[in-house]
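Entry 14. Structure prediction run on the chain below.
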Amino acid sequence: MLMTPRAKVIIGVVIVVVVVVAGLGTFYAFSNHHTTPTKTGATLTIASTATPTSLDPAVAFDTYSVLFDDQIYQTLVGYGTKTVDGTTYGALTPVPELATNWTVNSNGSILFNLRHNVTFSNGDAFNATDVQYSLNRVVSMSQGDSFHVAQFLNSSGIHVLGTYQILLVPSAPDPWFLNLFQLWVTDIVDPTVINANGGVVAGHVNTYMSDHAIGTGPYVLSNYSTSEIILTANTHYWGSQPNVTKLVFLQGGSPTTQETSLQSGSINVAFNIPLNQMSTLKNSSNVKVLSGPTSSEYYIGLDENVTPFNNVDVRKAVNYAVNVTNLVDYSTYGYGVVLKDAMAPSIESYIPAFANYTYNLTMARQYLALAGYSHGFNTSFYYAAGDPIGTQLAQILQSELAQVNITVTLEPIAAATYNAQVGLGHYPMFYDGWVNLLATPDDGLRPLFSSHNLGIYGNYNYFNNSTVTKDVIQAGKLYNMTQRDALYENAQQILASQAVEIPLFNLENVIPTTSNVQNLYIYPTFDIFFDQVTVS
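Output returned:
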C-alpha cells in the first residue's frame, strides 16, 4: 500500500568494509547490496492511482515521487537487510552506496571516501564536487523535505578534500548525522545537467527537473507522461545490471482495475489496492501479498486549540473510552500493530508510556465528570475521504465514544484539502500518521511534540509543554545514548500523562505482486528498490 509520509532492495554477495569510528574505536562490517542477478531482460509493470509530484529529489516529498528517485538516483549511504524466520526485509543499517566507507569523528563530522569510476547515466563522471553541489542545492532550494538537511548542514560544513573524498561537518550536534545521507533528499544529481537547464534558484523549484532525471542509479527515465512512466536499465551503471531491465508504471487506474489486472497477470505490482481486499488477493493462485514492519505511527489527534480538548481530563477520558485493540483489528484488516506510545517500538528510547490507558468506560466517565462533561459533549472527527482505514476507523470511533455520551460527527474531507488543513488547528479530532523517515527518537518526537513545531510544522495537536520541548531538543544533541534515552523516556511519560493523543498502530507496508516476482523487499521507510528484483 503506497502512502504519503509527513516522509533499497538489498541482498547479495558479502564483502567486508571496515569503518573506524574515530574517538570510539568501533568497527562496522557491511553487506554489499549489489548482487549479480542473471540478466533476463524482464519487464515489470507497476500500477498506481497516484502521479509523482516531482522527480527532483530536492523537491519530492510523497512516497510515489520518492519511488522513482530510488531507482534513478543514489545517496552516499544505502540501507541494509535482515532476515527473520526465513523472510528478508529491508533494514535501516547503513551500507556503502556512492561512498565505499566512512569515518565518524568524535565531533560528529563524517569523512566519506567515494566510489571511483562512477558516472551519471549520460556518461558524466561522478566525484566529490557533485556531492557538494547536490547538498548545497537542497539547502538553497528549501523545498520538499529539505529541512532534514538544513537543520544539520550548511555550505560551511561541506569540505571537498579530494576528487573522491569529502568531509561533512554538522552545524549542530546530531547523533544520527550518518542516517541523514540515506534519505532520498540527499540524492546526488548531475550539476552539468541542472546548470544547463535552469540552474539553482534559492527558494524555488527547477521545473525542468520535475519530469527529467539524470542519476547514477540502475535505471534511467525513458518516457514520462501523465498515463505512463517508463524506466529502463542504465547502461552506464557502475553496479551489476538488473534482472528487470524495464519498469513500466501505469498511472491513474482505479484500485478495482488494479486488482483485476494483478489477478490476470497484466500487471506485476499494485500500489493502491485497499487493505480490505488483500484477503481476496491472497486466495488468488498467481498473486502473493508482501508485508513488513515500518517506522510509522498512526494516531487520533486531539487538538488542544479546540474546546473541549484543551482539557487534559477530556483527553484522558477519550483515551479510556476507545478500545484501541478492537479499533485497530477492524480498521487495518490485520496489517496494523497496536501501539502503546507516540512512536514505533522499533525506535531507540521507546517505552510503552500509554500502556495504562486500557479500555475502561468507568474511568472514561470519571474523567469526563472531572472535566465538567458528565453528560458528554458533541464534537467532530476529520479524516481523508476515500481512505478505507480512516473510514472504518471513524465509524468504530463514533460508536465507541457514543457509549460515554460523546456524540461524534464524521467529517470526511477530500485528501488534498485534508492534508493542507489538518495542521491549521481547526480539526478537534482527526486521524493522521507520521512516517519516521530517519527511524530515530529525534525524528519521532521533536517534529510532533516540540512547541517550536506547532501547527503545520508537525505538531498538529498544538501540544505546548516546555519540559517536553526542552527534553527532546536536548536529547537530540547528545552522543551519549544513556543520557539521551533518559530525556526521551521522561518526555514520553509526560506525553502519556497529558494524554496528548490516542496512539493507534504501526502500519505495515503491504504490496501485492504476481507470484513470479521475487526479491522485492519491504523497507521500514516505505522505500522500494527494483534493481534486485527477479522475475521467474
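The first helix runs from residue 63 to 72.
Filed with the rest of this week's runs.
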